[in-house]
């Protein structure tokens, strides 16, 4: 039987806490979950000492759910490695949100910290607020960033977003910090706001769509005249589904630039041209 597990943070902890291994699961028992150990600095505490825990049975074949409520800016690894179910954060989240996630859905009502969706492999993550640095990139010491799935950010993102991203789709409704999509290997990144400095630095392949202000063009990107009529029609339609500035992308073919020529030049920028 599926379960909706509800964790309500009593008060923000004095130190950072990892919530790794706490994911939506069928048949979750509130008493057992409350006894699971968490590390608070060098001290092991039971989860129930930090959170009020309750569980509710769901009818039929409903998807397991996990709801986390409270100011969780110091709670890291929420949804890390998740492989199904639905996770909702009613507030802010800490670092490593949804890192290495395989499947399922995460919705954060507020903001999230650094390294969100790092090495995401599947599923869907939506952030109602802003993200910190290194979102959708590689974990420290790793070579590959986001590898699949979808990340939607309703606010802005920090620096180095989508660094070394290999696959998947990333939509940013706000602005992006410096080095957006640097060293991008593949995948699609769509930005509605302004891009910071060094956008697309060292990108090898992949697609960047600028639905808002056009960024400054580096000397290692050049304009091409390839026929992308079919590709643009399909991409425009898929982005429009997510609303906001993406719903108003013009049917007219965008300007297409390729680069970074310093690293092979197979990446592309699409800059829609308003009628």
UniProtKB/TrEMBL annotation:
GO MF terms here are:
formylmethanofuran dehydrogenase activity; transition metal ion binding
InterPro entries given in the database record:
Formylmethanofuran_DH_suC (IPR017550), Glu_synth_asu_C_sf (IPR036485)
* GO terms under biological process: methanogenesis
Q: What is this protein called?
A: Formylmethanofuran dehydrogenase subunit C
**Species, as recorded:** Thauera humireducens
